[in-house]
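Quarterly update from the structural biology core.
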Amino acid sequence: MPAGFFAGLAASDREALSAAQVGLSRGLPAFAKSLDDLFGRLDLETQQAFGVAEKAACSVAALSERFHAWSIDIGKLNRWVQFAKLCRDAGALGLSPIVRDILAGRLVAGSIFPAYEAAYFDALRAALFRELPELKAFDGEAQDKRVALFKQLDLMRIKLAREQIASKHAEGRPQGMPLRDSPLGVLKGEIAKKSRHLPIRKLLEKAGPAVQQLKPVFMMSPLSVAQFLKPGALEFDILLMDEASQIQPVDALGAIARAKQIVVVGDERQLPPTRFFAKLTGDDEDRDEDGPSFEAKDVESILELCLAKGAPYRLLNWHYRSKHQSLIAVSNREFYESRLFIIPQPLRRNRRNGA
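Predicted structure, tokenized:
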């Protein structure tokens, strides 16, 4: 304290101020040490707590006011300490700009997460550009146009394929004036009738070739094949059996005998057709010990029979019925070794490698 400060004071005042100066000089080091201990125990940073770079720059009034507020509500102090630690942790992770904006009041609560997302994706973009410099030349708008053009051309190609198939089929239709007893003559005669039509089985026996020329694809159940197609009357280039795990061999063999080659589609992990009624009627009798070791009736579906006979097969990875990967996630993981994916689905999740 300047010496001239005491000149205009009474002797008693000078003595009181001098005593206060001595007491203050003695107490300041202890106060500074206590303040350091307090900041250390509370893990406080002066800049965050009081807005100044050093504790010496804090005014006594500001310290007194803040300490009084903390003593009244200790919970606020605990929350502040936790907040300060989170700020330091965030700064160590490279989020110092966001922390500074929060402390300066430039970021309100509702803007913190969007700001973090923007910073994250900006950093990710920079990292990708470093790893893959060719991405800098990527034009998203041009890519969207290419995708739209591909979709348009794909739909046009599908339409063209339909027209080509229809045209080829039209070229193969029977032409000219048919003979009365020819397959086409029989068919035209039945079309002209108003009543007393031939049974379907008889019609397909007599006019089968003409019917196949007009309608080369038959969609029939195994029972319909046995009921309407006389053995030897018609022959097909290919037989396609869908849901083969639900078709018993005894029902499928009749259709197989009428085709040159077969395609069997099914899932061996699905439940097979029930044999409950066969057991009730006695059709599921015991095996003859002197008979063959393996028969068609030993398996529950035509799919199992084909696999047992060593027919070539391949796994279809496309799951066309589901629109989202999550719908088949459990069964895909538990039964199909995570090999199934939906269309379109350029990426597949693999729990083993985390991809």
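The radius of gyration is 44 Å.
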